[in-house]
């Protein structure tokens, strides 16, 4: 029987595009100087990103470490280090957003600075997603049987519900 799309880690990888889009919606709102919308999209982005990284940290990276070692310049240590860097960058953006909210004003040049400072976050995310898309999710897909993949994906979904 052919694998159904739900039996591959593409399901988790698809989060990456959604995350990128939500971050852009946050930045669109910043450009409109609509702080409540910028906050709403930012919170959505952070929550989804933290859930996504939790699945990878607690379930998929340990499995990858057990199976694969370090193929194609991708290792559990690199992935973990990138996750911690992403967490530091979102914390920095959070502090800046809180400062805008506390001041109650948002001048055009503050918007420019805010978006410029989020550039590093976007670059690190982009790089990280490329690494996961080429040497992490496809490797997990290739090294696990359909049954193993299905069981792991069930654990991933359950983690988010609990
Ligand atoms: Fe990741
Ligand atoms: Fe990811």
Structure description:
- The chain has 162 residues and is mainly alpha-helical.
- Helix 2 packs antiparallel against helix 3 and helix 3 packs antiparallel against helix 4.
- The longest helix has 33 residues.
- It binds fe (ii) ion (2 copies).
- The site of one fe (ii) ion has 4 residues, from helix 3.
What can be said about this structure in brief?
By secondary structure, the chain is mainly α.
Entry keywords:
162 residues, mainly alpha, Four Helix Bundle (Hemerythrin (Met), subunit A), 8 helices, elongated, binds fe (ii) ion
SSE topology:
Layout: H1 10-13, H2 15-31, H3 35-67, H4 76-103, H5 108-117, H6 119-135, H7 137-143, H8 146-161
Helix pairs in contact: 2-3, 3-4, 3-8, 4-6
Bound molecules: fe (ii) ion (2 copies).
One fe (ii) ion binds next to helix 3.
